[in-house]
Design a protein that fits this description.
Blueprint: E1 5-10, H1 15-27, E2 33-36, H2 44-50, H3 54-58, E3 61-63, H4 66-70, E4 75-79, E5 90-92, H5 93-100, E6 111-115, H6 124-127, E7 132-135, H7 147-164, H8 181-197, H9 206-220, H10 224-242
Parallel strand pairs: 1-2, 1-6, 2-3, 4-6, 4-7, 5-7
Helix pairs in contact: 1-2, 1-7, 5-7, 8-10
Bound molecules: S-adenosyl-L-homocysteine.
Length: 243
């Protein structure tokens, strides 16, 4: 089981798609489904389309917001059919699988695969919570797959790569565990507050600067000890500033 992978669906409108996602996941040996404010769930259409994967539906976690669904995840991928104006680092489904799938998932970080709404995908503020964009290469003139089809392709790539590989070394450096999304969010708040306190951050520019800073830190994949050092520096400079 690729149990360190969490499939996260954001505000899905059609319950049938949720069922089809559960089926797609179970076919590929995955069972960790998280739902953020689905329009209708549970629902007979979801159960019908799950077609025997109703155990995945039964165990699905429901969350009121995306940050809550991601709180214990260390690496977050946001699947998007569209090119975005923000230049986030991006990976294809195959590249994701080749880098992150591993047969031994005991020591593996929790990895979230976030999928957007059927009609409008993921919003920019949701992509801000993701470390990488995840793309399924396809016809550039018709690039939006059905939600469950998109989940199917990604899970398939993970399944195939998982059977081929031994444990990935990335994210398993034998040191402190990688920081979770919740720890990183607390860090970004602390960073933003400190930059405001020391007069560095102009409120009008804070959004674009924070987005760029996130991009830097997402590239580095901080572990909890490294994060402690950075928080220590922030605390120090805040204390120093108020003296
Ligand atoms: N109309 C939406 C697409 C919705 S499809 C839009 O313009 O964004 C529902 C979800 O499936 C998307 O949010 C995305 O997470 C996933 N998806 C669909 N096609 C994809 C593709 N080619 N690459 C990556 N993810 C895709």
């Amino acid at each position: 089981m690729l149990s360190n992978f969490k499939v996260v669906l954001v505000e899905t409108s059609h319950p049938g798609n949720i069922g089809a996602v559960a089926r797609a996941m179970k076919n590929m040996g995955m069972d960790q489904l998280r739902l953020v404010s689905p329009k209708y769930f549970p629902h007979a259409d979801a159960t019908a389309r799950a077609s025997g994967a109703d155990d995945v539906l039964r165990h699905a976690g429901c969350f009121a917001s995306l940050p809550e669904a991601l709180a214990d995840c260390q690496i977050v991928f946001g699947a998007s059919a569209r090119d975005r104006t923000i230049s986030w680092p991006s990976l294809t489904a195959r590249e994701l699988a080749e880098t992150w799938a591993a047969t031994d998932d005991v020591a593996q970080p929790n990895i979230a695969l976030v999928f957007g709404r059927e009609n409008s995908g993921l919003k920019n503020h949701e992509l801000d919570l993701c470390h990488y964009l995840l793309r399924i290469p396809c016809n550039p003139d018709y690039s939006s797959l059905n939600l469950a089809a998109a989940v199917q392709v990604v899970c398939y790539e993970l399944f195939v790569a998982g059977g081929r590989q031994s444990a990935s070394t990335i994210g398993d450096r034998g040191e402190a565990p990688l920081a979770t999304a919740a720890q990183m969010e607390a860090f970004y708040e602390h960073l933003q507050q400190t930059m405001a306190d020391i007069g560095f951050l102009h409120p009008e520019r804070s959004r674009s600067i924070m987005r760029r800073l996130r991009r830097i830190f997402n590239r580095t994949q901080l572990d909890t000890k490294e994060l402690d050092i950075l928080r220590g520096i922030l605390r120090f400079s805040q204390n120093h500033n108020t003296k």
